[in-house]
């Protein structure tokens, strides 16, 4: 027991004194979050959608001016007035997503309460259809606004009212997606790569062999490593979460206990895989590349920077087989959706199974000395 | 007290240790002397329980080292060839860490004092000098007050002063009544420290005795070294009084003799008669190096 505490403490001291560990394992995720969060997200995480709309008001009546005003007030629309030619050009150049042309005669038509009968359209929408999502949203938002004007003009009372119920109560942006991903990446690389490199180099330098010359049991040694790394990872995870919260307003909507449980599960799983790699590698020089070879694809198929569903179908079986995606899903579930353990039983079970198998292999293959 | 019989270890079909056997008595400094690759480290590591012998028996204080390595490890202290320490721990932290692996441990202050590391208590291992590191490595080997200490080439890579400091420490450990089992490829070290020396070559113990005993076994106890311009004298050199053997080694001629005075005076007279200049002439008593050379035809350390 004394040896266990001493080993844990020694490992924590080694972490604290090895500046590379601190820089790479803590500053890198935070830097990544700041960089990606600032450039890709918009920082606040709340107004996730901004549509640039250019309007050319050729009608220039109180009605048309009112419509422009209403559009400007609509959330998510960034409206600027311009001429027909410049508005069109801006859409073509990609500076604006939508161009709205209010043709002459619109005010007149509305003032006559639409009794003039059907004729040519007086509001024209110009959209870039190559971006269907934007085109869809743009046209819907503006159509609705025009529709409201129409209905007001004819004093239309809808027989059936639609009530809008917002089911997404939390404003989520890319940064909310990113932070759990970065957490997952950190757990992966710290443990898998960290353990593989450290243990292989200790073995090479004879540090492990020296310990083998004492009555120390390998299980005690491994337990000390695990404890120290779990503590370090917990600390790092909390730091990343705090930075996420204070800088980017990223909330943990689910249970902190559950989140920490998944962090623990991930830490233990990837640490076990790290131990296996350290045992299989013949030299410490080969341990790091092997660990890199294992980690690198995991970063891409693990849903860390973009959702797994965006990956080609060919890769989906791989995604289903490896643990990283499940960890990312679980962290995201707890943080973004407030998911509970019963809802996350799939990732919990898969990670648990990975842990059980890899830990067993790790203990069976562990050796103090160089082959 | 340490009893080793017929120890064999093969690596890839080669017998690295080939039937080694000896007894080590309590309180003595026992040395394994041999060149690199003779099988010294492998032999030691098998006795320390770090490697499993392919066959043979090892007993320490009646404990079977092959079957009960854990029980044995509590009784022994080891220092390995590579100074395997954590660079980012201090001397004190290292002692506390290794001490925690044993049931009992000596006070840190006592150890730091005994190994002259008091001022380095808070210094990281990576900032220690080679000699200080090696002293710390040995302090870690005695952290649990063991009766036997294994030191694998403890002074390799140290400068002469650090080496002598370490010799002093090893002799102190001996005075405390501990048994010391060390390996070395420095014959001077073996002569200075060891009560008995086992000479190892190619996986076998080829001789075992006290250093002086080994030297006494030599047919000749003195060596005359010099350089000659011509080698024509060689035949007559062998006929000088007392000469047992003539060797050539890197341009030097070595006369191995059991009558230093007689050989030397005849050598000088002969050189005068033949008008030959003897350059770099010196004499010395035979060393373990000569013992090794005589037994194996090889030098202990490559020059």
Automatic annotation (TrEMBL), chain A:
It is a multi-pass membrane protein. This is ABC-2 type transport system permease protein. GO terms for molecular function: ABC-type transporter activity. Gene3D superfamilies: abc type-2 transporter like domain (3.40.1710.10). The keyword Secreted does not apply. Residues 123-369 form the ABC transmembrane type-2 domain. GO terms for cellular component: membrane. Signal peptide: none annotated. It is found in: Membrane.
Automatic annotation (TrEMBL), chain B:
Pfam families: ABC_tran. One of its GO terms (cellular component) is plasma membrane. One of its GO terms (molecular function) is ATP binding. It is found in: Cell membrane. PROSITE patterns: ABC_TRANSPORTER_1 (PS00211), ABC_TRANSPORTER_2 (PS50893). Gene3D superfamilies: P-loop containing nucleotide triphosphate hydrolases. Its main location: membrane. Residues 2-227 form the ABC transporter domain. Keywords: ATP-binding, Cell membrane, Membrane, Nucleotide-binding, Translocase, Transport. Belongs to the ABC transporter superfamily. This is ABC-2 type transport system ATP-binding protein. It comes from Melghirimyces algeriensis.
């Amino acid at each position: 027991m004394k040896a266990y505490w001493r080993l844990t403490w020694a490992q924590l001291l080694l972490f604290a004194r090895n500046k590379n560990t601190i820089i790479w394992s803590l500053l890198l995720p935070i830097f990544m979050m700041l960089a990606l969060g600032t450039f890709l997200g918009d920082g606040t995480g709340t107004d996730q959608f901004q549509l640039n709309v250019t309007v050319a008001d050729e009608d220039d009546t109180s009605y048309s001016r009112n419509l422009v005003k209403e559009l400007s007030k609509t959330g998510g629309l960034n409206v600027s007035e311009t001429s027909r030619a410049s508005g069109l050009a801006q859409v073509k150049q990609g500076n604006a997503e939508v161009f709205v042309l209010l043709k002459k005669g619109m005010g007149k038509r509305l003032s006559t309460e639409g009794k003039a009968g059907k004729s040519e359209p007086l509001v024209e929408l110009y959209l870039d259809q190559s971006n269907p999502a934007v085109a869809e949203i743009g046209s819907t938002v503006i159509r609705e606004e025009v529709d409201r004007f129409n209905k007001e003009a004819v004093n239309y009372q809808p027989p059936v009212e639609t009530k809008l119920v917002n089911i997404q109560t939390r404003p989520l942006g890319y940064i909310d997606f990113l932070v759990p991903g970065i957490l997952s990446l950190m757990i992966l690389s710290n443990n898998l790569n960290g353990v593989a490199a450290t243990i292989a180099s200790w073995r090479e330098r004879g540090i492990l062999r020296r310990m083998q010359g004492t009555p120390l049991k390998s299980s005690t040694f491994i337990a000390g490593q695990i404890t120290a790394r779990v503590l370090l990872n917990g600390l790092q995870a909390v730091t990343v979460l705090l930075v996420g919260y204070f800088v980017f307003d990223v909330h943990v909507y689910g249970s902190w206990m559950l989140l920490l449980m998944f962090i623990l599960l991930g830490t233990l799983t990837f640490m076990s895989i790290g131990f296996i790699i350290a045992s299989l590698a013949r030299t410490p020089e080969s341990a790091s590349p092997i660990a890199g070879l294992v980690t690198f694809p995991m970063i891409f198929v693990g849903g860390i920077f973009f959702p797994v569903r965006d990956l080609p179908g060919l890769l989906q079986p791989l995604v289903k087989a490896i643990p990283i995606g499940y960890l990312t899903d679980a962290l995201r579930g707890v943080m973004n959706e407030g998911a509970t353990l019963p809802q996350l039983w799939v990732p919990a079970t898969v990670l648990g199974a990975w842990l059980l198998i890899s830990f067993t292999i790790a203990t069976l293959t562990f050796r103090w000395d160089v082959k | 007290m340490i009893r080793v019989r017929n120890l064999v270890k093969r690596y890839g079909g080669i017998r690295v240790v080939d039937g080694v056997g000896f007894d080590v008595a309590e309180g003595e400094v026992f040395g394994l002397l041999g060149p690199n690759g003779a099988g010294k480290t492998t032999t030691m590591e098998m006795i320390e329980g770090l490697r499993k012998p392919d066959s043979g028996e090892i007993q320490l204080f009646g404990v079977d080292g092959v079957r009960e390595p854990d029980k044995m490890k509590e009784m022994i202290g080891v220092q390995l060839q590579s100074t395997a320490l954590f660079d980012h721990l201090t001397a004190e932290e290292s002692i506390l860490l290794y001490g925690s692996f044993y049931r009992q441990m000596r006070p840190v202050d006592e150890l730091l004092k005994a190994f002259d590391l008091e001022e380095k208590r808070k210094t990281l291992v990576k900032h220690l000098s080679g000699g200080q590191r090696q002293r710390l490595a040995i302090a870690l080997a005695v952290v649990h007050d063991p009766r036997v200490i294994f030191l694998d080439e403890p002074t390799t890579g140290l400068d002469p002063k650090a080496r002598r400091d370490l010799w002093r420490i090893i002799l102190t450990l001996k005075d405390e009544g501990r048994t010391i089992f060390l390996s070395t490829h420095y014959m001077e070290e073996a002569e200075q420290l060891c009560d008995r020396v086992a000479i190892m070559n190619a996986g076998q113990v080829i001789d075992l005795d006290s250093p002086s005993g080994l030297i006494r076994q030599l047919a000749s106890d003195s060596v005359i070294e010099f350089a000659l311009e011509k080698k024509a004298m060689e035949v007559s050199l062998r006929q000088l009084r007392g000469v047992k053997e003539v060797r050539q080694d890197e341009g030097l001629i070595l006369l191995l003799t059991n009558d230093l005075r007689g050989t030397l005076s005849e050598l000088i007279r002969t050189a005068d008669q033949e008008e030959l200049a003897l350059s770099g002439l010196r004499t010395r008593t035979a060393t373990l190096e000569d013992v090794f050379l005589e037994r194996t035809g090889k030098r202990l350390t490559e020059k």
